[in-house]
Automatic annotation (TrEMBL):
Protein known as: 2-(5''-triphosphoribosyl)-3'-dephosphocoenzyme-A synthase
Gene Ontology molecular function: any one: triphosphoribosyl-dephospho-CoA synthase activity
One Pfam family, short name: CitG
Domain of life of the organism encoding this protein: Bacteria
Similarity annotation: Belongs to the CitG/MdcB family.
Role description: Involved in the formation of 2-(5''-phosphoribosyl)-3'-dephosphocoenzyme-A, the prosthetic group of the acyl-carrier protein of the malonate decarboxylase.
Amino acid sequence: MKLLPQIQVEGGAEWLARTATQCLIDEARLSPKPGLVDSRGNGAHHDLTLALMERSAHSLTPTFQALAQQSWQRPADIALRQTIGRLGRVGEQQMMAATGGVNTHRGAIWALGLLVSAVAMRGGDASASVIAATAATLAKLPDAAAPKIFSKGLRATHRYRVPGAREEAQQAFPHILQLALPQLRLSRNNGGSESHARIDALMAIMTSLTDTCVLSRAGMEGLEAMQHGARAVLTAGGSATPEGQQALHLLDRQMLALNASPGGAADLLAATLFLDRIGTPYFKH
Ligand SMILES: CC(C)(COP(=O)(O)OP(=O)(O)OC[C@H]1O[C@@H](n2cnc3c(N)ncnc32)[C@H](O[C@H]2O[C@H](COP(=O)(O)OP(=O)(O)OP(=O)(O)O)[C@@H](O)[C@H]2O)[C@@H]1O)[C@@H](O)C(=O)NCCC(=O)NCCS
Ligand SMILES: Nc1ncnc2[nH]cnc12
């Protein structure tokens, strides 16, 4: 394996961390997102604002940088799994300190943290599918130091017998690779604006994700409304068309009425934007 000078590792890690943070900010600002915080307002949330989401994103840059530095050209083994588990939990604490105890990005730290590590493990240069597969290998390794907490996500996955954030990563992010990235590129090719393409990518994720945030807040009724509504937007031709915009508006109203917020889908959109940017590798700039 080619070893890189330390300065190149530092530069690569810094670029990855800045890019991951920017993807979180791009996701938060993107509008209109049904039930979610966006540039219009707080969606279905009482304790979240766009300013808080942005503060949270910035608080995570050092965590992403440390993850990249520690993972650079390392193999997926128990030692690395434990290191990234520890860094991820420190990141969660930093997020909570920055937001005054509000959970803004727990799922995003998990997904983007694994993907940042995976890019670094590959020395900064690999395709989206190789990065996702590398992240999956890490996610499948046990982390003995993880506290045994029965989280909201675990409760929802057990109650409804569905996969959650853990399984999405362990299966190499199928909602990103098979749905969101292809939709992002299709909508761009169809001539829609970048914002429309990103909303369409979010819709593609929402057609099928078993989002444990939605399940915890609005049960199976909320999840089905999310999946059907997102499918209606894409079937109508996507968010760039008048019919698609109408379907999106209806979905927004339904999500608010049900108090449902697809936070997991939002995290995966940020991760999609990250993998889309990684398609142009750092070392080739
Ligand atoms: C593996 C973990 C992610 C832990 O997962 P688990 O399911 O056990 O725990 P949760 O605390 O519930 O976090 C899961 C978060 O993942 C997002 N998510 C949900 N469904 C999916 C899905 N199907 N696929 C992918 N991602 C999904 C979601 O995150 C977003 O929602 C958060 C807000 O949720 P919540 O607190 O429930 O907020 P509200 O509904 O607003 O609460 P109330 O107002 O009602 O009170 C927000 O953070 C978004 O990001 C889920 O919440 C992982 O955390 C873990 O094990 N970490 C350990 C450290 C580690 O090993 N790290 C390594 C990499 S750095
Ligand atoms: N835009 C957003 N609104 C609410 N929860 C989120 N989790 C991640 N992004 C989010």
